[in-house]
Amino acid sequence: MVATERFRPSVTVAAVIERDGRYLLVEEETAEGLMLNNPAGHVELGESPIEAVVREALEETARPFTPEHFLGVYLARFVRPARLEDVTYVRLAFSGAAGDEIAGRALDAGIHRTLWMTLDEVAACAERHRSPLVLQCVQDHAAGRRLPLEAVFSHASLTTPLVKG
């Protein structure tokens, strides 16, 4: 049997934010050009998924985000055309409320702007989505999916690794 490299999907979080029937998306620069995404990003070393989604939403929208529900775990695999990179994402999606935009706060590097879009508008531009998970998360939220935040457990070892002795 030939040894292969261990499968290491990228673990990400996403914020699904709805207000008055519109969803908050970001338009971001990618290797494939300007794409639309939920406010989202990678979980960093030492942070919980909930901490990560609060941070990412603030960085990408300049709005404080308060997670209220867990939407679910989403997986997608695709090839990024510009680099022919085979990538798999594991996305933990949360829904919640966003506060007002913080005046003077810059958006994260690569984020061009934020947009409020209806579900139909999000569905109509699926070819511009960063991944197929963008629309799926919005559709699940619109369908009423709501799981408790307690469904996502983060052990204290995230901030203080256990020492084996």
TrEMBL record:
- EC main class here is hydrolase
The EC code for this enzyme is 3.6.1.-
Which PROSITE patterns does the record match to this protein? NUDIX
Source species, domain of life = Bacteria
Key words of the record:
Hydrolase, Magnesium
Q: Which Pfam families does the annotation name? A: NUDIX (PF00293)
Per its UniProt record, the required cofactor names are:
Mg(2+)
Subunit info here reads: Monomer.
Protein name listed in UniProt: Phosphatase NudJ
According to its UniProt entry, this protein's organism is: Pelomonas margarita
